[in-house]
Amino acid sequence: MNRTNLRVLQRVLAQEAGYADSIDGIHGPRTTAAVERMLAARAASLPDGADRWSARRRAVACLQLACHEHEIDAGAIDGLWGPQTDFAADALAERLRTGEAPVPWREETPADHNPNGWPAEEGVQAAFGAPCEVSRVTVPCPWRLQLAWDMRQSVSGISCHERVVESLARVLQRVHGLYGEARLRELGLHRYGGCYNCRRKRRGTTWSTHAWAVAIDWDPAHNRLAWGRDRARLARPEYEDWWRCWEAEGWVSLGRHRNFDWMHVQAVRI
Ligand SMILES: [Zn+2]
Questions:
Q1: Does residue 208 share a domain with residue 87?
Q2: Same domain for 126 and 69
Q3: Residue 93 CA to ligand 1 centre (angstroms)
Q4: Domain region containing 139
């Protein structure tokens, strides 16, 4: 468990187990004592043998129990740190910070909402013209973007297909209004991964929707192509409103539809 997560645990211990020391993310004797008080009150929820676990493992188990008590699924109470616990700890931190339950991700396909009449994959050429020959316009972004692969470079706007300009501008305005500049940076949404790219799909020979400049990648380093919702940052609950802004305009997240390529959102229906 890293320091950030230990701080989350200490906040829980302050509420639940009389921990009155500083929230410093350091696993000292007072933290251990508070973990033991919290676990003693929940002995029935621990598996057999948990009394022989190390102090560190018992601390992780304690955080897992706290997640469950806040209705956040941390998986089995095993005291082991894995992706599910990591995700849950993050959700718990968000909950303690805002005092609200995070909005869960949606397992079902988002509603079939397509107000701009975006084409399906087979109709992309008819709707947007030949790949790599599209007329592009730069949409200014209301928050400061930086190139994900070279963060020293800032980007003033997104150069996209002229047909998606107005819709994209609405999405960016709404997102900015909802989160604000500081929160957008915290969420990594200033890490711009690109729009126009004259290339084929990474998996296959057909053209990527990037070849029409109707797809945008966000924070690729934390949302790698093959990652599912257990790892991709953009799958986390705090991005629910982000995705709603796109989906309100009919844009499609590959992550939310197919659980891969979470960085990618496109004005093409699937
Ligand atoms: Zn992409």
A1: no
A2: no
A3: 30
A4: 121-266
* pLDDT single digits (tens) 95-122: 888 776 544 444 444 567 899 999 999 9
Asked if residue 27 lies in contact with residue 4, where contact means CB atoms within 8 angstroms, the answer is no
Count up the domains in the chain and report the number.
2
Distance from the CA of 121 to the center of ligand 1, in angstroms?
14
Residue 217 CA to ligand 1 center (angstroms) comes to 5
In a domain, 112, yes or no: no
CA angle 68, 74, 77 (to 5 degrees): 80
Query: Could you please report the per-residue DSSP string of 33-90?
Result: HHHHHHHHTTGGGSPTTGGGS-HHHHHHHHHHHHHHHTT----S--S---HHHHHHHH
Cα of 234 to ligand 1 centre, how many Å? 13
- 84 CA to middle of ligand 1, Å? 26
- The pLDDT value given to residue 234: 97
Q: Are 260 and 203 in contact (CB under 8 A)?
A: no
CA of 201 relative to ligand 1 center, distance in Å: 9
Decide if pLDDT at 39 tops 90.
Answer: yes
For residue 53, is it within any domain?
yes
The tokens describing 172, both together, are: 């960016």
